[in-house]
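Hi C.,

You asked whether I'd gotten around to modeling the 135-residue construct. I have! Everything is below, sequence then structure, no commentary in between.
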Amino acid sequence: MALGEDIPDMPEDKTVPKYRQIDKRAGPYVMNWGRELEAQISAWEQENQSAATTAPTKRSIVADTDLPGRGAKRAKTGDLDDVMSDEAMKKSFDRNEIGKLTVPVMKVWLQSKGLTSSGKKADLMDRLENWFETK
């Protein structure tokens, strides 16, 4: 070490807690707290014994149609049977408006061209753009 000091055989680790000192100072308080906690738990269990022995019951599922003013959720159905024409799709591509098309419209159009129609909207847009760029 510096200035001729001897290197200690086992340096003292300052990060290890001093358990004996902690136990000496806080030990009785912790023991009293543990006894009080056990007493409170046993008193609570005796008061709520019937609730603790029965199994919890599940809530019944209320359908959306049972609630007033709410109908069942339905998927949007439009004129998906009519495939968007190539000219209309080309116009959308030329105007950079492919992002304004809905996912079902893109999927139907891609299926009509024999391309895969799975994935997110960004994936579908990429496939559409690639189709027009390679055409």
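If it helps when you're writing up: The mean pLDDT is 82.

Thanks,
B.
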